[in-house]
Each structure stands twice: as structure tokens, then as C-alpha cells.
Amino acid sequence: MAEHRHTDLHTDMLIDGAPVPAAGRAVRATVDPATGGVIAEVPEATAADVDAAVAAAARAFGSDAWGGLLPAARARLLLRLADLLEADAEAFAALETTDQGQPLAVSAGFSVPNAVEHLRYYAGWVTKITGVTAPLSVPDVDYRTRREPLGVCALITPWNFPLMILVWKLAPALAAGNTVVVKPAEQTPLTTLRLAALVREAGFPDGVVNVVTGGPEVGRALVAHPDVAKVSFTGSTEVGREIAAGAGRDLKHVSLELGGKAPSIITADADIDAAVAGNLMGGLLNSGQVCAAYTRFYVDAARHDEFAEKLAAGAASMKLGHGLDGATRLGPLVSAEQRDRAEEYVRIGREEGAHLHDRAPLEDGDGYFVRPAVFSGVTDGMRIAREEIFGPVLSVLPYDDPDELVARANDSRYGLAAVIWSRDIGAANRLAARVRAGTVWINMPPMLDAAAAWGGMKDSGLGREMGWSAIEAFTQVKSIWTSLA
């Protein structure tokens, strides 16, 4: 296994362009989930820290240094940040793996490059955010619109893809001219804090980007702050409801990307081997800690056993280990709590009567590892088929009548993503049109791109990220009327 000692850890918060160390403050440990060992201690922000961060962001928003910056100059700052992140990609990937657990194949091959891509993509949008002119039925009037930034935006990020999902929010927020206060998940703050150091190096004016660390109380203080104009949150549906309720009372803008329980429909004519390979990737990416993970598989009854056996064999063959080991395909879950939650659902699945395929035994050692659990013969009412687990627990459900597929796939409180496997592309697209999900993939593992809108339906959230949708989410339209008389 490759060894990374992280002698250059960044643990200071960032408020108004200045590092804020832990000295004299309460601290919270962040651990390596593959070993259970403490990596570092980071500050627990106070209400006064949140006030200071928001005040700094508000000052920067109204300043000539940021608010008066020409669009081309703002784009250059984003491009500079992208270059700095790309130059430091190896260290970022190793740190993400150590703090979160995802294998290097994920952190180095997906998470960090995706973050760089988003910064460059939104740098390109900075000079292209335009208003419109429209013909009115009022004489002697010129009418046009401007698309303007919202103000101070609270960006609250999850622990499963800390760096990547932060940049999904940060890049369009800054491209549109907003200022931000970031609150990373308390379990995985380290790549966010390292990126904050790059923000300073890139030359962003003081106060444009602020980072406060800590637990749920810090997030609540940020969401409730009267000077925050927008909250962008990725996390659980339960916390999302709490945020939406507060934002509704305060009339704040809000974007929410929440839970998921993605259905995978495997039709009778599907290429089973391709479906197994794609579903293993879609179901077990980051050890199943993905809101869009493929977790409930609807398979033609005649092919149910074949699919389930191949899926279980493939899952059992995947090497578990520390993500810094290049041979590792499955890392640990992020915490002991998440590990215990996944194992509890394995117990529930067995009690409900589903068939648990053989799981290779875990080797002795520390860390929050869970062997993939593949259940077959699952029915729609079982908890393992209905509740978000956020771990490597997969459910295979047989179907007899293709006409029931859409209703069964849609019989969920969630609607983030879905996937369809079929050789009949026409039939697959007709199914895709009827499935209630924000994203539907056909014959492929989950993919994301900065240009493709991302978000959920139903309990999976409100609003969209990525593409032009994110620019809309971080701006508002102003109408300007001019008399020509």
C-alpha cells in the first residue's frame, strides 16, 4: 500500500481571507475510516465565527474588489484555482482517500478531475451570463433584463464526495458573482480546508470564500443567519426538510440534493453480463455511499437467478482494503455509525425473508469495512428495497409482467436517478420517459458531466446543479424599463 503522511495538512478555517486556527477553541477529530486512527483535529466553529464569516462575505459582495470585478477577471480567478487544484491533484486525491475512504481509483480518477472540470466549465460561463430584451405592448418603452447574483450563499456539503460536491456548488456560485460561506461535513473537512488555502493562493479577494467547520449546530446557525440569501445543501432528506422549512419562513433561495434509492430495470432482452458489470459499478461505487447508487434491481423472473448469482459473485470478488492501496476496489464506510447501519440492514433483510448470497468473510483489522451484501427474491415491501441504506447492500427483485415495471420503479419516495438495461433502445427510452427520476441512464453505469443538469424529484430534492441550471440557481432576474418618450 502506498503511504502518504500528509505532513502539510491544512486545519485552519478561513474567514475574511485569514486562517483561523484551532488554538483556544473546541476541536473535532477527523479519522481515517480504514484504520480508525485520528488524522487531525479541526476547529469547532462558534456562532460568532459564523457571524464573522457571513459578515465578511457580505462586505466582499458589495466591494469593488469583487462586486466591481470585470467578468473576464472573475473567470481568470476560477481558471487559476483550477490550475492550482490540478497541479496539486495527487495530494488532494490521497487526502480525500485518507479522510473519506474512497479508493484512489475514485478520488484520483474521478473526484479531483471532476472538480477541476467544473471550475473550468464555469469559468467559461462568467462572460456569457446575459439578460434578454423583449417586445412589450407598451409604447415608447425599452425593456431588458439582467441576471444578477444573489448575495451571500451558504454551501453545505456531504461526507461522501467532499471535494467534488463542494466544487459543484462553489464554481457556479462564484461564476455568477456571489460570495460564499462553506460548511463541510464534520466527518470529512480536510480537502475543503486544503482548497481554501488554494483560494487564497489564487488571489480571490478577502471574504469571497469563507470556510467554517464543525457539526450540525454550525450548519443550523449558517442556514438561519439573516444575511444569507441562498442555501445550497447536499445530504439527507431529513436534514433537507429542516433546511427547506427554515428557508421557506425566511424567504431564502434554496437548492437541495437529497437521498435516493435508484431502481435498475433489466429487461428480458438485456445483455446480462453488461448489466451485471454496470450495476456493480453503479451499486458499489464508493462502497455504495452514493445518493444515486443502483440499489434495487428489477429483473425478468426468467433471468432473476442468473443475474443475482453473477452480481453476488462479482461483488464477492472485489478487493476490500485501504483506498491508498492501488489494488483496492472497495474502501471502508465513512464511520463506525455508517458501518453499523449497513450491517443492521443486512440483518433486517435476512429477517424479512430475502435470500442473502454468500459474503466473503472480513479479515481481522481495524476500520469500518462492510462486505457487499446481495439479496435476491426481494419483494417491494421489504425495508431493504424501500429505505436508503448508503452502503453496499443490493436488492434483486423479480418481475413477471413488463407492464408493471414503471409503477414498481416509481413506487418510492425518492426520485434522484434510475437506469434501464435493454437491447431495444426504443423501449428503453419509452421507459425512461415514464420513470420519475431526475436522471435516467440507459445501458451505462452512472456518469456525470459539468454540462448536464443534476438533481432529484420527490424526496430527492429541489432544484438542479450543473450546466446552465446552476447559473440560474445562483442568480436572479431583474427587469429594467426605460422610457423612450
Q: Can you walk through the features of this model?
A:
Helix content is 38%, strand content 20%. With 485 residues, it is α/β, with parallel strands linked by helices. The termini are far apart. The mean pLDDT is 96.
Give a brief description.
The chain is 38% helix and 20% strand.
Secondary structure: elements and pairs:
Elements: E1 13-15, E2 18-20, E3 27-31, E4 38-43, H1 47-61, H2 71-87, H3 89-100, H4 104-125, E5 141-149, E6 152-156, H5 162-175, E7 179-183, H6 190-202, E8 209-211, H7 216-224, E9 230-234, H8 237-250, E10 253-257, E11 262-266, H9 272-284, E12 294-300, H10 304-316, H11 336-351, E13 355-356, E14 373-376, H12 383-386, E15 393-399, H13 405-410, E16 414-415, E17 417-421, H14 425-434, E18 439-442, E19 457-458, E20 461-462, H15 467-473, E21 475-483
Parallel strand pairs: 6-7, 6-9, 7-8, 9-10, 11-12, 11-17, 12-15, 14-15, 17-18
Antiparallel strand pairs: 1-2, 3-4, 5-21, 10-20, 13-14, 16-19
Helix pairs in contact: 2-4, 2-6, 3-4, 4-5, 9-10
